[in-house]
Specification:
With 334 residues, the protein is α/β, with parallel strands linked by helices. The chain folds into two domains: 255 residues, Luciferase-like domain (TIM Barrel); 66 residues, no CATH class. The protein is built from 14 helices and twelve strands. β6 and β7 form a beta hairpin. The termini are close together.
Length: 334
């Protein structure tokens, strides 16, 4: 049975743009399901996804994530409906709230009410994509004129995936989303967390499998320099713990890693990024990701699938395009 594989494109470093594009083209040929493009406070996600739409044929094109504050729901509908048209119906709307530091101090928008903003964004987004007149009366938005998009979207529904952590946002994801993007769930807790989420979906009146689940981290195939790849993975983990607000640290504290969270924050704040990375315990890193051979990463993916994951995030570090295509093909499987 083929595995549903996705990749995440880091295009904040554009020193070799053509290499990045070629990698996605190869993933497209190899049968990778989705490419996700993130957006924080650097380059935007939609420009690169539009370029990728022109260079690929079947791979889905998702934002992983865009926040629901810096653009209105109608602007998000315009972006995604256009991307969906240009790609022949391959867009995925990956939404999240980001955090108060980015939303209030980069975008200058009040962060609260987060749940109402997410709920109303999805409701307005779905209305416009479906071609229904936009009339909405909510806590955040009051819209009375009955606008519709000035072109017919190629699909009446674009899948919405939500990045969520806390109980109320998980309930909203279970109620309204097509996919859930969790983060930083240690392997030994993964099956239980997914079972709990499926229970939320059922309580929302939907079939348990109505919402697909993406893996909470990525596996990294690094045949040439495992140590370097592990340090990169530890760097991402340390950055989220020390520099991305309190949500992610609280997530790991809930899973019993409070001492590690405190140590990483203390080291980063007192001695800088390298010290923060050094403070990430090996056992925690191993619980949230696998860095190794194709076989080791495929085995971790199969563990994730047994735990209930539907889509598996992978990264392949190689200098050879032929090896990249071969590796992705092996991870996708038959």
């Amino acid at each position: 049975m083929a595995r549903r594989i996705c990749i995440t494109l880091d295009w904040q470093n554009l020193n070799d743009r053509e290499r990045l594009f070629r990698g996605v083209e190869i993933a497209d040929r190899a049968g990778v399901d989705t490419v996700w493009v993130a957006e924080a406070w650097g380059r935007d996600a939609f420009t690169i996804l539009t370029l990728l739409a022109e260079r690929t044929r079947t791979i889905k094109l998702g934002t992983g994530i865009v926040n629901v504050y810096s653009r209105t729901p109608a602007a998000l509908a315009q972006h995604f409906a256009t991307l969906d048209e240009l790609s022949g119906g391959r867009a995925i709307a990956g939404f999240g709230t980001s955090g108060p530091q980015v939303i209030e101090h980069f975008h200058g928008v009040p962060f609260k009410p987060t749940l109402a903003r997410m709920r109303e964004t999805i409701q307005i987004f779905d209305t416009l994509i479906a071609g229904r007149p936009l009339k909405h009366h909510g806590k955040v938005f009051q819209l009375d004129r009955g606008f519709t998009l000035r072109f017919k979207p190629v699909r009446e529904h674009i899948p919405v995936w939500i990045a969520s952590l806390n109980p109320k946002s998980l309930d909203l994801t279970a109620e309204l989303a097509d996919g859930w993007m969790p983060i930083m769930i240690p392997e030994k807790h993964l099956a239980g967390e997914i079972r709990s989420f499926r229970d939320r979906v059922v309580r929302a009146g939907r079939p348990a499998d109505a919402v697909a689940v993406r893996s909470p981290d990525r596996v990294v195939v690094a045949p040439e320099d495992r140590d370097r790849a592990r340090r990169q993975a530890a760097g991402t983990l340390a950055f989220y713990i020390a520099r991305m607000g309190t949500f992610y640290g609280a997530q790991l504290e809930r899973f019993g890693h409070g001492d590690a969270v405190a140590a990483v924050r203390k080291a980063w704040n007192e001695k800088g990024a390298d010290a923060g990375i050094d403070a990430v315990p090996s056992d925690l890193l191993d619980q949230v990701t696998t860095v190794g051979t194709v076989a080791e990463c495929a085995a971790r993916i199969d563990v994730e699938r047994a735990a209930g994951v539907d889509m598996h995030n992978v990264s392949v570090q190689t200098r050879s395009e032929a090896e990249l295509e071969r590796t992705l093909g092996e991870l996708v499987g038959a």
